[in-house]
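Class, study these two lines:
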Amino acid sequence: MEQLNHMLFTWINATPDSPKWLLDIALFLANDMIFIVPVLIIGLWLWGRHNHIAFQRELVSKTAIALIFAMTCAKTLSELFPHARPFVEGFGFNFLHHSPDSSFPSDHGTAIFTFALAFLFWHRLWSGVLLLVIGIGIAWSRVYVGVHWPMDMLGGFLVGMLGCLFSQLVWNLFGSQIGSVLEKIYRFSFALPIRKGWVQE
């Protein structure tokens, strides 16, 4: 498995001779594209048509549970099974400054794949597929710039699947209670913006 990891990394990783425009795209994907997660979560909770807002907030709630569980699992795995990043091993080329912490599974990969899978399972096929494409782009970019191994991204995908499964089980058992509590917290915290009509009730 480690030999396959090294072989795939060598195939994907950029070199000093790689096109600058491609490296710029990879750096944008690796650094900035992940912000689509909080932007969509906040937007879907605060705004939407009246007859769709309950569905959107259920999606946001389940996605948040999945993300919290998946990121906790990822952090636990990285502590229990530390794995050096490529640049720590002196392998390949690195184009992005990063702390030399454990690489497996990728936090970026875990977050974006959990998010994409949540939309695939609980929203629409087209939105899930689109986010999976974005997730693959982020996964490729993190390997391309030299801060992750390919298997780190596969690990993130698998942990994301586990997070969505956990969230669905929790929602089946406690979904109505969780939704009610979150709605009460939201209405209390956002009373003024709701009254002004800036956000959906």
